[in-house]
Amino acid sequence: MSRIVYDRKRWSPNTPIFLNIRAGAGALARRQIADFGASWAAAVLGPDLKMPDAQQTNYPSVGGAPWDRVLAGGPPDTFVGDRPPGWIRGHLVNGRWHGRGDTWRNLVPLTTIANPNHATVEQYIDNYLDACRRYEEQAQRDHWYGVYYCVRASKNPLSDPSETDDAHLYAYAPEFIRIDWRAVRIDKPVDRTPLQALKNMDSYPIQPVASFSSDLRLPALPTPMYDRHVLPADNATGGELLTDLPADFPTAQDNEFDDWFEIHQVVPD
To answer: Which domain of life is it from (predicted)?
Structure first.
């Protein structure tokens, strides 16, 4: 799908080039007596992710205490054994987008309600990437559109403050995750083969998008995200996060796409 001018006069064949670049993740979150769960993760995602066979699975595979083993000096139970609400190892950067599943630096314990809510936001980003793919296919472009996607975990745990101690399981899960995304533009290299471009994608400058080309039609917000910034909808947004956005994360533009959203966890009764 992606094409570049690689001998100054002709365009390369359609080739997957701009998939996932600048992937980053922070240190594990310090939760009570354990370093457990991601603090943040981010990546710049490109339209080639919507090509056939370009996405991956990267199912969660990492374990350890307190996920599936009792933490010494910690809770007497594990997330695997906690019912309800039921827990999954939730990717910050989706495994389909080449986000890793073999490290807690890209995973946090999410309830079986929070994870589908995060998937609602991910579907919106998928729809945007599909629009970027269609834009790329319509004509010979001198640039790519993509998205810089960053997810951060809350500093506060899910547990009630009166129960936040070493022995309470929910003290080891974030209260919420916050998702920020920005449209980015990357100018295509000239006189490079697709393989050379692929090897150097991390070094190409990313630019914020003040406005989109009229040829690119932005997707509609999913209904659950319309006119709000949080799911479940009866939660209040806000709260301290474990880290700031990456230093190269663009400032939000008034382009009808750049935004943020929070996915809150619900303590079962």
So the answer is: Bacteria
